[in-house]
Amino acid sequence: MTAVATMPETRGKLTEGAALAPLVWFKSGGAAEWLFEPRDIDDLQQFLRDLDPAIAVWPLGLGSNLIIRDGGIRGVVIRLGKAFAGIDADEMTLRCGAGAPGISAASKARDHGIAGMEFLRGIPGTIGGAVRMNAGAYGREVCDILESADVILRNGDLVTIPLAEMGYSYRHSALPEGAIVVGATFKGDAGDPAIIGAEMKRIGDEREASQPLRSKTGGSTFKNPDGHKAWQLVDEAGCRGLQIGQAQVSEKHCNFLLNLGGATSAEIEALGNEVRKRVKENSGVELHWEIQRVGEEA
Questions:
Q1: What is the domain count for the chain?
Q2: 146 with 183, same domain?
Q3: CATH of the domain at 195
Q4: Which end of the chain is more exposed for a tag (fewer CB within 10 A), N or C?
Q5: Domain of residue 204, residue span
Q6: What is the pLDDT of residues 244-296, one digit of tens each?
Q7: Which of 37, 118, 269, 290 is labelled catalytic?
Q8: What is the DSSP letter of 64?
């Protein structure tokens, strides 16, 4: 473990050996060497400035789209709480803290008649995670609405990065290692709140009907390869319901993996890799993980 003396003083909450499984959707995985919950942006900046540059930092949002391996995460996991969850609307612009859930951002946009952000209703994580990975759903993605992102670099500097410099591609950005998104500015179009709300309801109803939302899952497991739907490739490879230990491919939606109760992260990841192998053998198409896998093996 990192020596206590190396941890900077902070106004936030710093916990050694913090369990991470309760904080992620899969409810599996090991502990963080350190878990830091900053009081505000200044607190986070000062902490990173004072932290030994050799110590890795890793941001955690709502814990969707994520497998934390059973050996846990070395260094400092940074979790942004309510102080980073504010949302303000001004004309057709939405300014969101990185800790705000996607559904909250979509609802704020609806209330202010800002169209084009309805798809955020279908993003299960926080704005910070969505900005970092260029999250998308229902035909749109973050790069379609982002104006700029506020980011704290590993050295503690706060910078604003415009859309053109985000290096976006499908489910990917070029943000540097250790950079933490703390806010984002989105631009939409004028719309009727009733029409926006109806579209959000359609998205919500469709997710409810087609996805295993009330299970221990991580969201969409694999990226859609060019010209293909990941779920269909998984289904055609005979993987619907496939199980390793307590990890299972969802019967309801083949691009979701489930923790049936006591699955280890190793079982979940092994199941995903077995699915990838079978899809490649069946179709010749290679599936790439959309779910992030982080941390150490047990």
A1: 3
A2: yes
A3: 3.30.465.10
A4: N
A5: 84-210
A6: 999 999 999 999 999 999 999 999 999 999 999 999 999 999 999 999 999 99
A7: 290
A8: -
Q: Is residue 6 predicted with pLDDT exceeding 90?
A: no
Query: Closest Cα partner for 210 from 231, 236, 238?
Result: 231
CATH number of domain containing 75: 3.30.43.10
The encoded tokens of residue 19 equal: 């369990």
The question of whether 220 is a catalytic residue gets the answer: yes
Whether residue 283 lies in the annotated active site: no
End-of-domain residue from the set 187, 210, 233: 210
Output the six-digit token pair for 133.
């990975």
Same-domain check for residues 162 and 280: no
- Residue 74 burial class via C-beta count within 10 angstroms: exposed 0-12, middle 13-18, buried 19 and up: middle
**97/189 same-domain check:** yes
Tens-place pLDDT, residues 16-72: 999 999 999 999 999 999 999 999 999 999 999 999 999 999 999 999 999 999 999
Confidence of residue 5 (pLDDT cuts 50, 70, 90): very low
- Angle ∠(74,80,82) on CA atoms, nearest 5: 150
- For 143-178, write each residue's pLDDT tens digit: 999 999 999 999 999 999 999 999 999 989 999 888
**For 169-196, what is the HEC assignment?**
ECCECCCCCCCEEEEEEEECEECCHHHH
Could you say which of 28, 107, 220, 265 is catalytic? 220
Q: Are residues 141 and 252 in the same domain?
A: no
Give the three-state DSSP class for 279: helix
Residue 291 CA to residue 268 CA, distance in Å, equals: 11
278 is catalytic: no
Residues 69, 171, 276, 278: which is the catalytic one?
171
- Reading across the β-sheet that carries 87-90, which strands appear in turn? 87-90, 93-97, 180-187, 146-152, 158-162
